[in-house]
Backbone:
């Protein structure tokens, strides 16, 4: 282990895991989110009358979730007729 507590890099995984390992060594403290604000948002959500099942924190998380939802809506819309046609005839 090095002085950061990380295990030694394995050459066979350098191309797949290497970029993530390097990012974690250099990104500490440079994240865009404010942990205190995140904690406050979580506490607010927990105290809400209806606590959300999901609470993406930060613009990047919200954008990622909305993009995913748009993709799901597109897939469902494209295949809606075929999917609905699986019901027994009435």
Residues:
């Amino acid at each position: 282990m090095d002085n950061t507590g990380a295990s030694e890099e394995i050459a066979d995984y350098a191309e797949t895991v290497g970029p993530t390992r390097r990012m974690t060594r250099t990104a500490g403290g440079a994240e865009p989110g404010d942990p205190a604000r995140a904690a406050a948002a979580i506490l607010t959500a927990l105290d809400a009358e209806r606590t959300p099942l999901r609470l993406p924190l930060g613009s990047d998380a919200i954008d990622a979730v909305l993009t995913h939802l748009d993709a799901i809506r597109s897939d469902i819309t494209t295949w809606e007729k075929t999917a609905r046609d699986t019901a027994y005839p009435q």
Remarks:
- The chain has a mean pLDDT of 90.
- The longest helix spans residues 59-84.
